[in-house]
Amino acid sequence: MAIATLIRPPSLVGRYALTLNGTPPLSCAYLAGSLTAAGHEVQVIDAVGEALHAMHPGYRADILINGLTVAQIVERIRPDCQLVGISCLFSHEWPLIRDLIAAIAVRFPGVPIVLGGEHATAVPELCLDESPLLTACALGEGEETIVELAEACAVPDAEGRARALAAVAGLVLRGPHGPLRTAPRARIRDIDAIPAPRWDLTPIEPYLDGGFSFGVDRGRTMPLLATRGCPYSCTFCSSPKMWTTRYTTRSPALVVDEIEDFVRRYRAENFDFYDLTAIIERDWILEFCRLLDARQLHITWQLPSGTRSEALDEETLRAMYRSGCRNVSYAPESGSPRTLHAIKKKVKLDRLEASMRAAVRAGLNVKANILIGFPDESIADLRETLRFVVRMARLGVHDASVWTFSPYPGSELFDGLRAAGKLLHLDDDYYAALLSYSDVSGATSYATALDSKQLQRYRLAGLLLFYGASYLTHPARPLRSLYNIATRRYESRMEMSFGNLVRRLTTARAQVEAA
Q1: Is the Cα dihedral 144, 148, 154, 158 positive or negative?
Q2: Which pLDDT band holds residue 375 (cuts at 50, 70, 90)?
Q3: Pairing state of beta strands 178-181 and 171-175?
Q4: In 3D, which of 284, 304, 329 has the Cα closest to residue 223?
Q5: 83: part of which helix (H) or strand (E)?
Q6: For residues 291 and 311, what is the distance between their CA atoms, to the nearest angstrom?
Q7: Residue 21: is it exposed, middle or buried by C-beta count within 10 angstroms (0-12/13-18/19+)?
Q8: Does residue 23 or residue 437 have the better pLDDT?
Q9: What is the pLDDT of residue 16?
């Protein structure tokens, strides 16, 4: 048996980001569940959940850290720990995690430190090069890998432990002549057999009590995964490298069982689905809704991350609403067919608009995600997207985000920009620029046709056009939104984002005055 410490790092955010909202550490909870099922002892340090309202200066003046400091994290690690696993889901976290690894290694010399998540999977050799005290990077899904790592770390002598680590599939280790990749690890086929997440090891109650969630605050909210992977290969997304394009669904009955268990154990009222692409199979979602109806749990649920529209017709959307779904996000990304083709986003805009219209009629609060500034995107493409944004507002979509493209490690566009010599240095400025997608104060352009200031103007134009057209077409909405923000009874992501921004700025000001 090994003693493993899993660390969810603090959250990094641009100073004027509208999307800050701490979320429970789903990946750490799943890894802890697998370790526990295999007989290992686990400690989870959730640096966000243990200090939800704490703000510190980041690695640049325009970045804030939300959560524990590096020193506080290191202080919490058990002295008898035999393995440290750190999650790096977002690449902009890497500069902070790099410092965290160095601090842990000084305090716990000889204890293996393994990095997992999207960033570690995308650029493991770079991580090992920039962090000399990092032991290994784990690639892709982590549940099976972390168990084998714990078993290897339980080997008492150093030489035997090194051989055991080299036998673990799905790692990039330090070899005598540079980084060494172990045997590839296949995706987990039976995802219903994955042990349940260990939420009791995390500070889940502050999230539940404080209204922190990925979606809209509709009460005590728990996160869920109903599927794994995504069968599509959008060029701006790192999912194909992290998960491959294999898409797997859990049993609808098991998902409903999990919901009922969380209602009983945590008095959960709302559920956020964190899936990459939650709804592809129409029969699956209809069966899920039927089972949820039959349990009469009186909960709400939502799809905040963006999903496909093909399976979302009138019948499906009404079934979703009856079973408690209140918020759904679509991910059209662009209103330009040329751009959609270039980024391999297989979306038919007319069909998407019909699904959005049906969702509004069904009573759902509808959000759409738009992404602009792709490398080969033209001014004409952007204008076509702005026209599409106006059409969405007029047909009743409640909410829209207009994000700017960032070349994330592991994506096809990232590799293309690197190969073309347009992304030479992955320094701290590059990582900070990845945050510009969610920070309304600025943008970083990688598009040939426009500079960063022009991209920012198009982004603001998109937001103004959407909400201007929405409020002109639906004049009661602005007053309702102001009321919801004032009373913190949010219905849309925009309302909650502005409420969170006010709360965050107020907290930051109070901390500065106290200091």
Answers
A1: negative
A2: very high
A3: antiparallel
A4: 304
A5: strand 83-87
A6: 18
A7: buried
A8: 23
A9: 64
What the block records as the tokens of 369 is: 């995600």
Neighbours of 372 (CB within 10 A): 28
Per-residue pLDDT reduced to its tens digit, 211-265: 888 888 899 999 999 999 998 899 999 998 998 889 999 999 999 999 999 999 9
Q: What is the mean pLDDT of the chain?
A: 92
Query: Which of the residue ranges 7-16, 197-206, 499-508 would you say has the lowest mean pLDDT?
Result: 499-508
Give dist(CA 435, CA 425) in Å, integer.
17
Please determine, for residue 449, whether its predicted confidence score (pLDDT) is greater than 80.
yes
Q: Which tokens is 217 given?
A: 């605050």
Produce one character per residue of 195-206: b if its CB has 16 or more CB atoms within 10 Å, e if not.
Answer: bebbbebbbbeb
DSSP classification of residue 512 = H
Distance CA 373, CA 381 (A): 10
Residue 126 to residue 165: CA distance in whole angstroms: 20
Using DSSP, state whether 116 is helix, strand or coil: strand
3-state secondary structure of 272: strand
How far is Cα 111 from Cα 78, in angstroms, rounded to an integer?
12
Q: DSSP states of 363-413 as a string? A: T-EEEEEEEE--TT--HHHHHHHHHHHHHHHHHT--EEEEEE----TTSHH
Q: Measured between alpha carbons, how far is 240 from 326 in angstroms, rounded to an integer?
A: 29
Cα distance between residue 224 and residue 191, in whole Å = 13
Q: And the tokens for 383?
A: 């204008």
CA distances from 209 to 7, 167, 170, 206 (A): 22, 44, 38, 5
Is the four-CA dihedral 249, 250, 255, 258 of positive or negative sign?
Answer: negative
Work out the number of other CB atoms within 10 angstroms of the CB of residue 27: 20
Query: Could you tell me if 123 and 168 are in contact, meaning their C-beta atoms sit under 8 angstroms apart?
Result: no
